Amino acid sequence: MKALLACACLLAAVAGHAMRVDNFMLLDQDGQAHELHYYSDAKAIVLIVQGNGCPIVRNALPDYRAISDVYADRGVRFLMINSNLQDHRESIAAEASEWDIPYPILVDETQLVGESLGLTRTAEVMVIDPRRWEIVYRGAVNDRLTYERQKQAASEHYLRDALDAVLAGDVAAIEDHGAKGCLINLPGADADHTQISYSDTIAPLLRDNCQECHQPGGIAPWAMTGYPMVRGFAPMIREVLRTKRMPPWHADPHVGTWKNDRGLSVEERQTLVHWVEAGAPRGEGPDPLAEAVETAPEWPLGEPDLIVEIPPFEVAASGIVEYQFPVVANPLDRDVWVRAMAIDPGVTEVVHHVLVGTTEPGREAKYSGESLMNNYLGGYAPGTGPQIMPQGTGVFVPQDVAFLFQMHYTPYGRVMTDRTRMGLYFHDEPPANFLRHSVALNPTIRIPAHARDHEESAYFEFYRDAVLYQVLPHSHYRGKSSTFALQYPDGREELILSVPNYDFNWQRGYEFVEPRMLPAGTRLIHATVYDNSVQNPGNPDPTRDIAWGLYSDDEMLYGDFVFSWVEETSAHPIDNPERTEVVQTVGFLDRDRDGNVRPDEVPEDMREEFNRALEQGDRDGNGALDQAEYWEVAQAQAKARAQRTASAAEDASAAGE
What we know:
Layout: H1 2-8, E1 13-14, E2 18-20, E3 25-27, E4 33-35, E5 44-49, H2 55-71, E6 76-82, H3 89-98, E7 105-107, H4 112-117, E8 125-129, E9 134-139, E10 145-146, E11 149-150, H5 158-168, H6 198-209, H7 227-232, H8 234-242, H9 266-277, H10 288-292, E12 306-309, E13 313-315, E14 327-329, E15 336-344, E16 351-359, H11 369-373, E17 376-380, E18 387-388, E19 393-397, E20 402-409, E21 416-418, E22 421-426, E23 433-434, E24 436-441, E25 446-447, E26 454-461, E27 466-474, E28 479-487, E29 493-499, E30 510-518, E31 523-530, E32 546-547, E33 558-565, H12 577-589, E34 596-597, H13 604-617, E35 625-626, H14 627-656
Parallel strand pairs: 5-6, 6-7, 19-23
Antiparallel strand pairs: 1-2, 2-9, 3-4, 5-8, 8-9, 10-11, 12-22, 13-21, 14-20, 15-18, 15-19, 15-22, 16-17, 16-20, 24-33, 25-32, 26-31, 27-30, 27-33, 28-29, 28-31, 34-35
Helix pairs in contact: 6-9, 8-9, 12-14, 13-14
């Protein structure tokens, strides 16, 4: 069975011991994502098989460190992998902390990578040559350790010799040396996976998790119309599961629980990949995928109460299309409360995302937090369905507003004309409360050229008790990972969302199973790590320093969230957009998060204005502005502007008389 497995796993043996390694992505003990092929710029990759409690692994740690201290500076990447059934992320992290392990330990929860690598024992090391993605050495690090025995010093240095040969370009001279270590239990490696039923297991799994997009008229590039299509794409299914490109659900499963969770369980991933590696057998029984084939409905929630047609737009065959901001008049002659919103994309291949809010009729059609987010209705991106407001909430749409859209198009190889529509569904009676949207943002971001892991952050401090329903991280092509955390008034911090492998192609909100109750003073902290290096395949230009910008070749730190104020009701609104703007400003200027904004934290192009505010509002004389002081200054400035406007109007009136 192991020979069959090696063949099925596409580990092509060449040149004696050399074996090709397929790409994979795993999370490490800290929840960080690692894709093997991302390290294509390394001179070599050393993969060390780790296992908690294994004495040989623990005893070999000084040898690993000594080698990595020398060869890391020569372009060699060092990683560990744990495929043990009995170990899990928390226990692996504890082992790494206790034994001061300096390497990322890739947690192979499904054991699929361990199976494909043919792992049998811990303490084995593998040297991978990224030029051909082949294992050119596997075995012991040296001859110092064996079972219950160890020498004072090694006389044979197998790993060092292998690395020297790889760096010299002489991989043919490398010989394998068997490793001593603890046995790894990989039950899936010897199982007969040809017995997995397509009819009873595989097809229902694909129908329930994939066919919503993979159907005729769906957003996926091919439709799962039955076994012949699935069998043809079976190798691709294996690849996208191993690299976590599919399903398009990027939340770390160890952080938070989500109402709209689209991920697969460990067991489901194992079953699908094992079935593919067994040759994707058809077996007996009906084909549930063929029976379930339907054309994707225009409006999954049924006919909307109002359909708004966005003006047609011709998308070029290639290049960058600037954001479009069409404004459509509200045809209603009455105020309404929206309970749900859906977008029907005209051409799914080119509609990257749609955002919609309301604005004043005749207002200049351009994006701003004021014009679109003040009364935000929702959005669309591939993979998102209709948006249903949380129970007891809604978005109020007065009759005298217009709908403002932000349209992001991506060319798809030929000229296409998009005719996207929006459908709105109304409450029969006013709901109990307003549904609010806001954002933790940082328009002062600066991402250096060639930076692989550059982090930016901001926070939003709730100035009243609130209920948090959903969070959504947004960045562009350089976005690598994102997190949301809560910092409570007593100082406690809690990570509530981690997206370790952010994908710009999927703009997805994460809706809590249980809404989070936030006392006043709680901070929602949003952080994003950016990859502006050549290793990022989507990077438009790694030589540029990157600043904030609307377009995809610029960047954003933009953490959208959906909430309601506890004290607010539909009859008594209390939301204050001006105060929200102050909260956002403090949240990106207060870089050390001590609650005070000092001049040295403010970008140079904002410092003159800030210093005037500081002179006016520093009540406690500490040389900084806290949120309350900033808000007092903003109110005073708004009052002064209103007085000047009124005075100018009086002067104009007097002159007219």
